Amino acid sequence: MKIVYSYYVLDIVHKGHLKMMENAKAIAGKDGKLVVGILTDEAVMEKKPKPILSFDERFDLANAIKYVDLVVAQETYSPLPNVKKMKPDVLMESTSHTDEAIDEAREVMESIGGRVVVVPYYPSRSSTNIKNDIKNGGREK
């Protein structure tokens, strides 16, 4: 059974999140499992402002998504502590992360016999952009 690990803040769920999870589940395969890490508030605040939704709410939202088999807390911005504990076959990464972070993830995954799959980041569908659209009264034309 293949295990795929993917992680999110999930403050505002949007199509980019769903496509990432759908792709991660496809990589896991029919008999595989998609494990989703949801960053705690403290983990998010290592790099970004505190989420609007509580951790519990974000955790429950992830659990409700059909592609997800298991949701776990991710207590650091980096997925590596969870990855080292779980030893998944695949770690999903995004091009929104630094090359250094992705290279470090590759080293860790190779050391446990796994691999990293890097998928494109779609900034037009980011939670930050959606929040800004709401603040500004709607999408810019």
Bin the helical content: 40-55%
Distance between the termini: 46 Å
What is the CATH topology?
A: Rossmann fold
Task: Give me the Rg, rounded.
Answer: 15 Å
Description:
There is one protein chain. This protein has 141 residues and is an alpha/beta fold. It has one domain: Rossmann fold, CATH 3.40.50.620. The chain is built from six helices and five strands. It is globular, with a radius of gyration of 15 Å. The mean pLDDT is 91.
Fill in the keyword field for this structure.
6 helices, Rossmann fold, alpha/beta, 141 residues, 5 strands, single chain, 5-stranded parallel sheet, 40% helix
Structure in a nutshell:
The protein has 141 residues and is α/β, with parallel strands linked by helices. It is built from six helices and five strands, in the order βαβααβαβαβα. A five-stranded parallel sheet has the order 3-2-1-4-5, sandwiched between helices.
Walk me through the topology.
Layout: E1 3-8, H1 15-28, E2 33-39, H2 41-44, H3 55-64, E3 70-74, H4 80-86, E4 90-94, H5 99-111, E5 115-119, H6 127-135
Parallel strand pairs: 1-2, 1-4, 2-3, 4-5
